[in-house]
Amino acid sequence: MTISMYEASVPVFSASLKALSNVLNIAEQNALDRKIDPQVFLTSRLAPDMYALTRQVQIATDHAKGAPSRLAGREVPKYEDNEASFADLQARIARTVDHLATFSAADMDGSDDRMIELKLGQREFSMAGMQYLLHLAMPNFYFHVTTAYDILRHNGVPLSKAIFMGSR
């Protein structure tokens, strides 16, 4: 049995973004319960040279909307990166999940061999679709989702692996 490029991407991104949304809901409620300014969480980072929580969520959604778009030969939606609250991050996640819902398996048929060219920072990449998905887009997506979770956990938000995985 084989797995399609669609199955390996769109449902995976959607499920993880929904779990991330739940993580953010728990964090926002935790800030209220502990009487912590939500900006403390939104601007927190694990190390001085790492991005803050807000940027981690932005980058995760960038990979989630970008990968299927590139694989399907569509233009990648552009977001402003101006989120400043939990509500803003939730809206960004919802917009990304809605975008993912516009794809079908047929949109991505044959994309495993389609050449994907993109620039990330100062680096330019050109690779076959499957290589792009499995070795660049998915690892980056999971890195930023995991880092967002870790920032909140480091700040005392009561999260668990089950919550991260979306099973709670």
Automatic annotation (TrEMBL):
Lineage: superkingdom: Bacteria
Entry-linked Pfam families: DUF1993
InterPro entries linked: DinB/YfiT-like, DUF1993
PANTHER family for the chain: BLL2446 PROTEIN, DUF1993 DOMAIN-CONTAINING PROTEIN
Name the record gives this protein: DUF1993 domain-containing protein
The organism of origin for this protein: Mesorhizobium temperatum
